[in-house]
Every structure is written in structure tokens, then in C-alpha cells.
Design a protein that fits this description.
- With 191 residues, the chain is α/β, with parallel strands linked by helices.
- The protein has six helices and six strands, in the order βαβββααββααα.
Amino acid sequence: KRNRKNKRLKGRSIQERPALVDEGTEIGHWEADTVVGSPKGRGAAVFTAVEKVTHDYIAIRISGRTCAGIEEAIAHLKSEYGQDRFSQVFKTITVDNGTECETFTQLESLGTKVYFAPPYSSWERPQNERHNGILRQYIPKGTGIDGYSDEDILNIADEINSRPRRVLDYQTPAELFNTFLDEVYAIENVS
């Protein structure tokens, strides 16, 4: 046996996260992670994020579970939602303490607060873990992500977001999140 060293957190601890995030009353608070295909974690991976109120699920194929892969996902999100409104769509993001997640601290410059969960405590981000379990219905464990295109991963996320949920009064995450986006971007059009 070897002793595990306590990893130093890469930034703000999840204990510093405002209680408002856990109350589930405000949209824009996210939990994020990476999903690997091969048992050794090599090759392509999937960046995933889930919004805590609407349960909207984002899945983006990235080159690997590395800082470079996370930077690809961040660039995709910036181009998708725009830098001007980014902090309104992503108010907070909670990630694990993996080395690939260090890159998330750059989002602080856009106004997004980033929180890090302690190592080996996936229960601190339950919604993301649950949604990654749903993703595994489409991409079983041990199956390489390299066999899936960017479009395949986006289609899987769209399908997951199209499922009505009892917890959402049988609305879909896509419906609720699109309503939220309409509100965020309507502010821009009125000004």
C-alpha cells in the first residue's frame, strides 16, 4: 500500500460556494467533468456540464483529458454563448480537482466563479455524475470515444436534453434552458 497525498485545491473550494447554488432557485450554476472511454484514459474524451436547475446537459468531444482538451471545450462554449453574456449563462462552475481542470480558472476573467470539489468526492457534484451515467447508456464504459464524431456526441446530448423529466414537471431540459437563454439574450436586443 502507498499513502495518498492530499492534493492541493486548484482554486476556490466548494465550501466557499454560495448557498444559493444548492437551493436550486437561480439558473446559471453548472457542474462539469470529463468522461473517458478507454480504461487507461488515453485518447479522446467528452467534456460534460449540467445546469443545476434546468438539468440542461452539455457534452463536447475533446482531444483528451488534458488542459488542452478543456481549453478546446472552453473555446467552444465561448463561441457558442459569446463572451459578453458568458457570465450570465455560466454564473458558477463546479469541477473536480483533476489536473486538467486547472484551466477553468481562466473563466474568472469573464466573471464566472469556479469552485473545486475535493479529490475523491464525486458526491459533491451529483447531478453531473448522474447525467454522465445517462451518457454511459449511449457510450458504455470501456468503449473508446475515438469512434464517435463531434456530431455524434452533440446528438447524444440533444437526445438526453429532449427527455421529459418528472423533477421538471415533465418538461424537457432543452425547453427550460432555451427559455432561460431567450431571457438572457433578450436583454441585449432591448438595449
